[in-house]
Design goal:
The protein is an alpha/beta fold. The chain contains 18 helices and eight strands. The structure holds guanosine-5'-diphosphate (GDP) and magnesium ion (MG).
Length: 419
């Protein structure tokens, strides 16, 4: 466990660059100056929590751009702050849609492409290309020359884009009903994918990737591949913001999110023990910032869709009674309080002292001897709470899919419940 923590410290190097003062941080660490380390990491955490991410959603008219902007934020088309959707293209100007829980992650619903006199450079001047971290280009039909031109223009500016072919549910339903004897879902999907790739190649794009989606069942088809690509291409601090904000629609998403938050526990534990530590009521040998830990645990509930608002929405979307969803939770069923955090710290302190002994033998952390037990207790409590949140999120998804067996998909994926 101790070496795992040390590894985790090292893997934070990229994140630490955010503090713009890595050398001072290293020196403070080596001198065992925990308050100095904590102060620097506090500003790192603050930057991580507030990092801005702008995602441009563009493509054909009526292709599902606005529906995607809603679904990726865990919203239905009729929820408050959802983008207007419908058979008529509604978006005239770029419209920002901040994530309801993480407002610095913004999805931009961009005007659709479909006029005869299209010019990619003009379009991007109008929507201000430089504003976006990356683009999603969506079409519900073949990729046209205009869409390929759009992609090439994005490339010219050194930005990433991802091509999405939407409404594949429609193709599958049609194929199943029209040609039932020879129907193969995989074959239909491969045909669509190959056609899209060929058309993009014919327009001069090299090795294009196309992701097949249904905006009505976002977790299905190629969503996990799309997510994997987007996450891989983002810088580390933006990657974390993006992952935390993703809707909890599939097991792979939950696992990626958990891995990113796990890397964070070290940062949170250091700051909680180093900045404003106070003895924990009923546990005087442990000193930490209970308020900060309460926020961290609330953050886990929100990110995994276990907070009251998300669970109520999920119950509405799936028709499952709320009390049945709540029954499967092992972790907190209501807002996290400081009293609960103190209780969890008490449970974690039982086996933390052996762990803190091991920690003291780890170079770097050994110099923080004065807070060894507090750090070990807090770290252990955070890791356990995170594991419980991940397991609760998985149970909730299974529970949410019970009522309608169609919702449960192979490969541990689920169709769309809320964020
Ligand atoms: N079957 C199906 N319909 C979709 C999908 N995505 C969007 N739609 C429908 O297509 C229409 C246009 O969607 P919208 O999001 O408004 O398209 P936009 O013009 O690109 O923003 C709406 O009636 C949506 O409900 C999808 O993946 N599958
Ligand atoms: Mg629209």
């Amino acid at each position: 466990m101790a070496s795992e923590v040390f590894q985790s410290c090292l893997s934070q190097c990229k994140i630490l660059e955010l503090s713009k003062d890595t050398r001072a941080l290293k020196e403070a660490f080596e001198a065992g100056d925990l308050p100095a380390v904590a102060a620097k990491l506090q500003s790192t955490l603050h930057s991580l929590e507030n990092v801005r991410l702008d995602i441009g959603v563009t493509g054909g008219m009526g292709s599902g751009k606005s529906t995607f902007v809603n679904a990726i934020r865990g919203l239905g088309d009729e929820d408050t702050n959802s983008a207007c959707t419908g058979v008529v293209e509604m978006t005239v100007d770029p419209t920002p849609y901040p994530h309801p829980k993480y407002p610095s992650v913004v999805f931009w619903d961009l005007p659709g492409i479909g006029t005869s006199a299209f010019r990619a450079d003009k379009y991007f001047r109008r929507v201000q290309l430089f504003r976006y971290d990356f683009f999603l280009i969506i079409t519900s039909e073949s990729f046209t020359a205009d869409l390929a031109e759009l992609a090439l223009e994005i490339l010219r500016h050194g930005k990433h884009f991802y091509c999405i072919r939407s409404k594949v549910d429609v193709d599958i339903t049609a194929s199943r009903s029209r040609r039932p004897s020879s129907f193969s879902e995989e074959r239909v999907l491969n045909q669509i994918r190959d056609d899209c790739v060929q058309r993009l190649e014919a327009q001069g794009l090299r090795d294009p990737k196309v992701f097949l989606l249904s905006m009505f069942e976002l977790g299905k088809y190629d969503f996990h591949l799309l997510e994997e690509s987007m996450v891989r291409d983002l810088e580390s601090h933006k990657r974390h913001a993006f992952l935390v904000a993703l809707p909890n629609i599939s097991k792979p998403t939950l696992e990626r999110k958990a891995a990113s938050l796990r890397q964070h526990t070290w940062l949170v534990a250091t700051v909680a023990c180093g900045a404003n530590p106070r003895p924990v009521p009923g546990l005087p040998e442990v000193a930490c910032d209970l308020h900060m830990l309460t926020r961290a645990l609330e953050g886990y509930r929100h990110s995994f869709g276990l907070d009251g608002g998300s669970l109520v929405r999920l119950a509405e979307q799936t028709g499952q009674p709320l009390h049945e969803i709540l029954q499967v939770l092992q972790g907190p069923k209501t807002k996290v309080t400081e009293a609960l955090v103190a209780e969890l710290l008490g449970q974690a302190s039982g086996d933390a002292s052996a762990f803190s002994q091991k920690l003291l033998n780890v170079p770097v952390l050994g110099s923080l001897a004065s807070c060894g037990l507090s750090f070990a207790t807090v770290y252990r409590m955070l890791r356990t709470s995170l594991d419980v949140a991940v397991s609760d999120a998985q149970s909730v998804l299974v529970q949410a899919s019970l009522d309608s067996p169609d919702r449960k998909l192979p490969d541990g994926q689920w169709s769309q419940p809320g964020a």
